[in-house]
Amino acid sequence: MEIIISKLKSAATATVILFASVGAVCSQSYDLDVLFDRLQKVDAVDAAALEAKIVLEWSKSGSAAFDLLLTQAKIAIDAQDHKTAMQHLNALTDHAPNFAEGWNLTAVTLFNMGKIGPSLEAIERALALEPRHFRALEGLVFILEDSGLYKDAFDVVLMIESIHPHAEILSKLRDRLEVKIQGQAL
Predict the structure, then answer these.
(1) How far, in Å, CA of 77 to CA of 109, rounded?
(2) Going by C-beta distance under 8 Å and a sequence separation of 6 or more, which residues neighbour residue 43?
(3) What is the pTM of this model?
(4) Which of 75, 96, 107, 129 has the smallest number of CB atoms closer than 10 Å to its CB?
(5) Contact 156, 174 (CB under 8 A)
(6) Would you give per-residue pLDDT tens digits along the chain (186 residues)?
(7) Torsion of Cα atoms, 16 then 62 then 110 then 152, to 10°
(8) Coil, helix or strand at residue 65
(9) Among the residues of 130-168, which ranges form H helices?
(10) Is 92 helix (H, G, I), strand (E, B) or coil?
């Protein structure tokens, strides 16, 4: 168990360093840059609409075939058919390795299959391509929290907040992790 915790801490540290070092350098479109800029300036009421636009932009690979693979993977994920989802996602990431959303959904599917190490690797790939991918960062929070790394998970929540200040999940995560961190300190 100590080895797993050590590896998770290393992965979390690497992800934090990667996020901090890459900063605003992204391979995403100008449209995403504009949307993320607006996300910093809007109030909570308008944030949900901007989030939906960002998620829509993330799902655009630039190829109809790759978009179809992504759609088929989403359908399989919703049906909890992890094997089929992984078939579509493996094809997608093999042929479009620079498509962050393919890696993010791979991480989600692997996590749902209980494959935490490979899920972390997919999160790292997604964040290397799109450091502002707040959904990938949410996945990292859940993995760190499940592993008892509450302070590290809280640090990632703060990263999400710096990207998407009005994300609905923030207050729940922050409150839950603060209680767990206080419990660890006792």
Answers:
(1) 7
(2) 166
(3) 0.83
(4) 75
(5) no
(6) 555 555 555 555 555 444 443 433 334 467 999 999 999 999 989 999 999 999 999 999 999 999 999 999 999 999 999 999 999 999 999 999 999 999 999 999 999 999 999 999 999 999 999 999 999 999 999 999 999 999 999 999 999 999 999 998 898 999 999 999 988 765
(7) 10
(8) helix
(9) 134-146, 150-163
(10) helix
